[in-house]
Write a structure and sequence with these properties.
By secondary structure, the protein is of the alpha/beta class. The protein is built from 22 helices and 22 strands. Bound molecules: thiamine diphosphate (TPP) and magnesium ion (MG).
Length: 664
């Protein structure tokens, strides 16, 4: 059915509204029944979360919005909303069946779909993590002069997540007009709301963010629609977000496999009196004047449509596992940019120069981080940028790494080009879900790029203890879809930041704090981006290959020089995806391998590098490779303890001597 909504925010009359709303509500119910049926027959796997009882909220909240203009993220019970926003029923059947024509190519299942090209972001399971993507999407679109608004949805259970708070907080602090809809269906899986929150209404929380909030009957589709239209008008006037709690029902279990026997008979009977389809159907005749017969005609046309959709895809083949339709990384498009030179810079200067270069060349680029504005960042690497580009392009954010990443991800989908600074790499753990599971899998799941640059000042050696000295490349390498760069010279720092920015994937650049102000060198950037993602040779030699990165490069170099052993020293530079070919060739030449890393051995990258080289160059090794690394303990604080913890020249000399003695 064509929506035919006229000028936004013009409203339907009740007579116009009910046939349209009921169409989508009944379509949603019929499709859900069909998915449950396919699940029981074994054609659909995974979680089938039914929307029975949520249809009025899902349809009523979405009808006022504009597909492709407004930015939207929906929840697992929002099939009605997906349909309003233009999802094709046949494609949804393919998605649930995970067949070769599924919109996610079978890469994701059931509810984890969207259409990022129409600004309907694909859902990830982690409750709360979608909210900030909408905040960022709306922010970036509006920054370009668009009139976009946002719709994002969370359940009563999901409101307990930190990301719910972080997202509302950013939206209100930054004045970003997003409608946060809480679908309060009284249960989170089996947990009743009395164990989830202690306020009277979830909309009461709006006051804590200085924004308006309201609780309504989410089983009445007209009430939902009118409340959303009112909220949108208010949001357009004030530019502020709005928190709307819709009290709806969960008439079935959490998913098809759940009998929901934790819901009492009395509660269930009360619910059935408020069943949303029944209520909308009554209004269809009371307000819309439709007869029982004409309503049945409408319903049976929908049933036929769904049956036809199922039949049409019955013979669609399964996905071909030998030819994956998408890869983990989006292909690079930009190959060449303007050159840049500087006669002498420290690593910290190289960061500032690269950020300045990127902001200057890309009006859509902006920086986000903590204290990066007038204060210029904890390490002063955004020096002068706030004064030059203003607070809307060098943004001081609240302390909420997770939602800040989500905001950056959303912004990357509506024309923004975010560069986010973590004050310390250690605080990246606050955003593991957003970076590792949301951003990094975005291309894999949706087929669209997620160009995001994260800067992480890392490493120890300056007596900052366990929470400010971390080396986390091993942790981040566990997330496919993420690129990791670890520069060590000013030239490499400039190249990593510029190439990372123009790459269409999420990229983390590790910046060793100890190296910020200890190294000086020239920057001679040719503008050619094609050759940057590769290992760098540090010194040439033929007796042993040493692989080291970050602050360990200088340690390795000094150790080799002190022994007089001829070492071929390599900085892998790109730690994910590893590009070890030149290093494997080096080992073929030297026959010996030493890896030096600042982190502990377990789940550091060193053991993986050794394994890869053993697999690919086993016959060329003259003796067992060695790993010099920190012990598997947190980084200690006292300087005597820290200097014992971090590998030093003495450790590397010992390993080199052992390796040379190991020739046999
Ligand atoms: C961060 C996170 N923790 C746990 C889960 C597992 N989980 C999936 S749905 C769900 C209940 C959600 O309840 P609610 O937010 O009220 O939404 P509803 O299912 O009622 O629509 C849980 C615990 C999850 N998806 N994400
Ligand atoms: Mg719930």
């Amino acid at each position: 059915m064509a929506l035919g909504l006229r000028v936004f925010p013009e409203r339907y009359s009740e007579t116009e509204f009910y046939p349209i709303a009921y169409h989508y509500m009944y379509l949603a119910r019929t499709m859900d029944n069909c998915f449950a049926d396919l699940f029981r027959k074994g054609s659909v796997k995974g979680t089938v979360a039914l929307s029975h009882g949520t249809e009025a909220t899902a349809v009523g909240m979405s009808l006022p919005f504009r597909s492709g203009i407004d930015v939207v993220s929906l929840l697992h019970r929002d099939i009605g909303a997906h349909l309003v926003f233009g999802a094709d029923p046949a494609k949804l059947v393919c998605q649930y069946m995970a067949n070769a024509q599924s919109p996610t190519h079978g890469r994701e299942g059931n509810v984890h779909h969207g259409d990022q090209s129409r600004r309907r972001f694909p859902m990830l399971s982690h409750l709360g993590n979608m909210l900030s993507t909408v905040v960022g999407g709306v922010w970036a679109a509006r920054r370009q002069g668009e009139d976009s608004l946002g719709l994002t949805v969370i359940g009563d259970g999901g409101t307990s997540t930190g990301d719910f708070h972080e997202s509302l907080n950013i939206a209100s602090v930054r004045k970003i007009p997003v409608l946060f809809v809480v679908e309060n269906n009284h249960y989170a899986f089996s947990t009743p709301t009395r164990l989830q929150y202690a306020c009277a209404n979830l909309s009461d929380r709006a006051a804590g963010y200085g924004i308006p909030g309201k609780t309504i009957d989410g089983t009445d589709v007209w009430e939902v629609y009118c409340a959303v239209c009112d909220a949108l008008e208010q949001m357009r006037q004030t530019g502020m977000p709005f928190l709307l709690e819709c009290r709806c029902l969960r008439l079935m279990g959490h998913a098809v496999y759940d009998q929901a026997d934790y819901v009492s008979v009395q509660e269930r009977e009360e619910w059935l009196l408020r069943e949303p389809l029944m209520r909308a159907r009554l209004q269809l005749s009371a307000v819309g004047g439709l007869t029982e017969e004409s309503i049945r005609v409408l319903e049976s046309a929908i049933e036929t449509q769904v049956n036809d959709a199922v039949n049409a895809v019955a013979n669609v083949p399964r996905p071909d596992p030998t030819t994956p339709p998408w890869h983990v990384f989006a292909p690079s498009v930009i190959k060449r940019v303007d050159p840049f030179t500087s006669s002498a810079a420290k690593n910290g200067n190289a960061v500032t120069l690269a950020l300045d270069y990127l902001l200057q060349h890309n009006p859509e680029a902006f920086l986000l981080g903590q204290d990066i504005g007038p204060y210029c960042g904890a390490f002063k690497t955004s020096k002068g940028l706030s004064a030059k580009y203003g607070p809307d392009r060098v943004m001081d954010m609240p302390i909420c790494e997770s939602a800040t990443v989500g905001m950056a991800l959303g912004a990357s989908q509506t024309g923004g080009r975010p560069i986010m600074e973590f004050q310390f790499a250690d605080f990246g753990t606050e955003a593991v879900t957003q970076i590792g599971l949301n951003a990094a899998t975005w291309f894999f799941r949706s087929g669209g790029p997620a160009p995001l640059l994260f800067r992480m000042p890392c490493g120890g050696g300056i007596n900052l203890g366990a929470f400010h000295s971390g080396e986390f490349e091993g942790l981040w390498s566990r997330f496919p879809g993420l690129k990791l760069l670890y520069p060590s010279t000013p030239q490499e720092t400039f190249e990593a930041l510029v190439a990372g920015f123009y790459d269409p994937n999420p990229v983390i650049v590790f910046e060793h704090k100890l190296l910020y102000w200890s190294k000086t060198g020239p920057i001679d950037f040719s503008g050619d981006l094609t050759d940057i993602f590769k290992p760098r040779t540090v010194s040439a030699g033929d007796q042993v290959t040493i692989v080291a990165w970050g602050a360990m490069i200088d340690i390795a170099l000094a150790a080799a020089q002190s022994t007089g052993i001829s070492a071929d020293i390599w900085n892998p530079f790109i730690l994910q995806p590893l590009a070890l070919e030149p290093i494997i060739r080096s080992v073929a030449k030297t026959g010996r391998l030493l890896v030096v890393q600042e982190s502990g051995a377990t789940a550091g990258l060193g053991n993986n590098i050794i394994a890869q080289i053993c697999i690919h160059g086993y016959t060329t090794l003259k003796c067992a490779p060695q790993l010099v690394c920190a012990p598997d303990t947190p980084a200690p604080f006292a300087k005597e303890l820290e200097s014992r913890y971090i590998p030093d020249i003495r450790c590397v000399v010992k390993a080199l001597t052992d390796l040379m003695g190991g020739e046999g």
